[in-house]
Write a structure and sequence with these properties.
7% strand, alpha/beta, 5-stranded parallel β-sheet
């Protein structure tokens, strides 16, 4: 009686779900014949939902201090990590938050910072469309970023909609290497500091952190540990079964914990229990839970309660006729014995691969193409691919069929996104493993050949990634050289974005494409690839790799001019890795060849001679003339200034007797040949030298002011 009473109460409270109108035409039962997989319901996630909302309330409370928080959601693929966050998206927005998201992709790890930049671009779009606060938003952004905002707008296009047009104005500071990375992180922090508030906090959701590149992880760490950035909730999801101890994600999280500023809340999503699986199946079949118990038990036994696996298995049962709607009895029926004895795929990927094979051939091919790009692909990229005369059917049109089937979704971009990573994995398995390299090469060549110059610039990383995946199939030497040139462009572009690990990968791939004979016919390309690669590896702290690449350049170089860039990187890296002896020896040898001899061992007499020579030159110039010195144009002297500039740093740290000699020599070169960007440091260092050695404080102050003016 209790069970009957419970069933009656369910029918009374949900008549549209559990009761059919027996007087209506049979055709009107079509809604009951379809599986109603409820994507708007989270089963067995009440505790996790409550935790997320509680953390959000902390960042949006005006009375709360230190108002940035971090939530990490872990679990196996298919357990509903992303769904948990997406289900609360509208609630966050209702409470005033600006919700933005980015997704890392196993196939697109080499595309630097893509997930975070997509999220920030979405954020700037929200700011620009906030008509109520648009003036306030623009004023706050312009005040926070100033002229440096143009640096950020190059990576976040929608930011330009919040910035005033700048015509003329002072040139932006040129920085490279780690300095560029630090500037990028600082500007992003300024952007968020100026636009976040307790009434409009930001919820930044990054999915699949297990595939995040090192540059993105470093930027993420910089954001969540910023003591001046309030009102931010960072939510990250990752597959804990794909992240082992020592993984870069764990190292980043440990660094955040050691910093001790940002509270971290951890949520682990597990598989559904039996009751939740039964609730899901009851909703899907619009059938009372007591009636679906036996089916749910069999499904639970086969799938282990993995939410994605459950829904895909249920769909496969319907497709194979083991689960069907009876028109005469007006209810769902199933072949229990066949279901229990049925051998099924070991995971959702294999199950979905079989499902995809039942689609039309043109949809197969379109899904193969889309899967080669990863979890999502821009529609414009696919349209470029379709312009290849070799492609007889429309990839975009076929993917629209996949969208109708629920396999993909059409999202802003516009772009196509697989409904789940596992569907992308299943589609990728449609490409035979032995054919994947050739397939990627074909896709890359089609994009490369059909793209305009502007499109190549815009989709550079996408094109190069596809070509690199199939580069081992290229046999034509001229084609290898062309791809090596494109790889160099990609490496330099990534480096300018402070994405040094992807930059290194692009450059190393380019080096792998050139042969020993190319040093004769394509010398500039070879030197550029090796030099750039060495410089990036120096930034990454890979001294052995730096040394190997520089030795190759120095061995192949015939003139000092061809070797100078490598020598400079060697001096930089040797000094940074506490090998100042080699740094000094190499730099002094180079300076000797540039006509600027500096003694390896310095005596007091040497210092006096340099000071006297410098003072004699300075006496020939008035204050006004010093500030109107012509720009230095002599290439050898410019190189000498560059080497002297870096040696000044090492001299100050470990060879102080060399410091006054080098600062004097740099001032002499500036007075004789003109000023360059190193001259300001030279005059400042000279001021420090005469203050310390001669006690000449007034002139030291004077040259310090000249240095600032320069």
């Amino acid at each position: 009686l209790e069970e009957v009473q419970e069933d009656l109460q369910l029918m009374m409270s949900n008549p549209e779900k559990f009761l059919a109108d027996s007087s209506s035409a049979i055709g009107s039962t079509k809604n009951y014949q379809s599986l109603n997989i409820r994507t708007d319901i989270l089963y067995d996630r009440e505790e996790e939902t409550s935790t997320l909302l509680e953390v959000f309330s902390q960042i949006s409370s005006p009375s709360c201090t230190n108002r940035s928080r971090m939530v990490l959601i872990s679990g196996y693929s298919g357990t509903g990590k992303s769904s948990l966050v997406r289900k609360l998206e509208h609630e966050f927005i209702r409470r005033g938050a600006r919700f933005v998201s980015g997704k890392f992709d196993e196939m697109q790890q080499i595309q630097p910072l893509s997930a975070i930049m997509n999220a920030l671009n979405e954020y700037c779009n929200l700011l620009a469309h906030d008509t109520v606060h648009i003036d306030r938003n623009r004023a706050a952004v312009e005040e926070a970023l100033g002229s440096e905002g143009q640096v950020l707008a190059a990576l976040i296009p929608n930011l330009s909609r919040l910035l005033a047009e700048t015509i003329g104005g002072p040139p932006l500071a040129e920085v490279s290497g780690r300095e560029a990375q630090h500037r990028l992180a600082f500007l992003i922090r300024l952007l968020l500091r100026s636009t976040c508030s307790s009434s409009n906090p930001i919820v930044l959701f990054l999915d699949d952190l297990q595939w995040a590149d090192s540059s993105s992880l470093e930027l993420m760490r910089s954001l969540v540990t910023d003591v001046a950035l309030d009102n931010m909730l960072f939510v990250g999801c990752y597959r804990d079964n794909e992240v082992e101890p020592g993984h870069s994600l764990f190292e980043c999280l440990e660094s955040i914990r050691r910093f001790g500023i940002t509270p971290i809340t951890s949520i682990c999503t597990s598989n559904l229990n039996m009751a939740s699986v039964n609730a899901l199946i009851s909703d899907a079949l619009s059938t009372l839970p007591r009636a679906t118990g036996s089916l749910s038990e069999a499904v639970f036994q086969k799938t282990g309660g993995n939410a994605l696996f459950v829904t895909e298995f249920l769909t496969s049962l319907r497709d194979e006729g083991l689960l069907q709607y009876s028109l005469s009895r007006r209810k769902w029926e199933w072949e229990m014995e066949h279901i229990r004895s049925r051998t099924i795929a070991q995971n959702a990927v294999d199950l979905m691969t079989a499902k995809l094979l039942r689609l039309a051939p043109e949809v197969h091919q379109a899904l193969r193409v889309a899967s080669a790009f990863g979890a999502h692909c821009l529609e414009e990229v696919l349209q470029i691919y379709d312009t290849d005369p070799c492609h007889l059917s429309s990839t975009v049109a076929a993917l629209d069929i996949a969208v109708a089937e629920g396999l993909m979704a059409k999202v802003d971009g516009p772009a196509y996104r697989f409904s789940h990573d596992q569907i992308q994995s299943a589609a990728y398995k449609l490409i035979l493993e032995s054919e994947r390299e050739s397939f990627h090469l074909h896709v890359g060549k089609s994009l490369w050949q059909q793209s305009s110059e502007d499109e190549i610039d815009e989709y550079l990383f996408v094109i190069v990634d596809q070509l690199h995946r199939g580069a081992c199939r290229i046999s034509d030497p001229s084609e290898k050289i062309r791809l090596a040139e494109l790889s160099l462009t990609a490496g330099r572009t990534a480096a300018e974005m402070s994405a040094f690990l992807p930059a290194s990968a692009y450059l190393q791939a380019g080096i792998g494409l050139i042969s020993d004979g190319d040093w004769e016919w394509h010398r500039e390309l070879c030197f550029d690839l090796y030099n750039w690669c060495a410089e990036i590896e120096y930034i990454l702290g890979k001294f052995d790799e730096v040394k190997a690449h520089l030795e190759e350049v120095i061995k192949k170089g015939r003139t000092l001019r061809e070797k100078l860039r490598a020598y400079y990187t060697f001096v930089q890296s040797s000094g940074s890795f506490s090998n100042t002896g080699d740094a000094f020896a190499t730099a002094l040898m180079v300076l000797e060849n540039l006509g600027e001899s500096i003694p390896a061992e310095v005596t007091e007499f040497d210092v006096q001679q340099e000071l006297l020579a410098t003072q004699a030159l300075l006496r020939t110039k008035t204050e006004g003339e010093l500030l109107q010195l012509k720009p230095m144009s002599d290439i050898d002297k410019l190189e000498a200034m560059r080497f002297l500039n870096i040696l000044l740093l090492y001299a100050y740290a470990e060879r102080k007797e060399h410091f006054p000699i080098m600062s004097c020599r740099m001032v002499q070169l500036s007075l004789t040949y003109g000023v360059c960007k190193y001259s300001a440091f030279a005059f400042g260092a000279y001021g420090g030298s005469i203050c310390g050695l001669l006690g000449d404080i007034s002139n030291a102050y004077r040259f310090g002011k000249i240095a600032l003016t320069l």
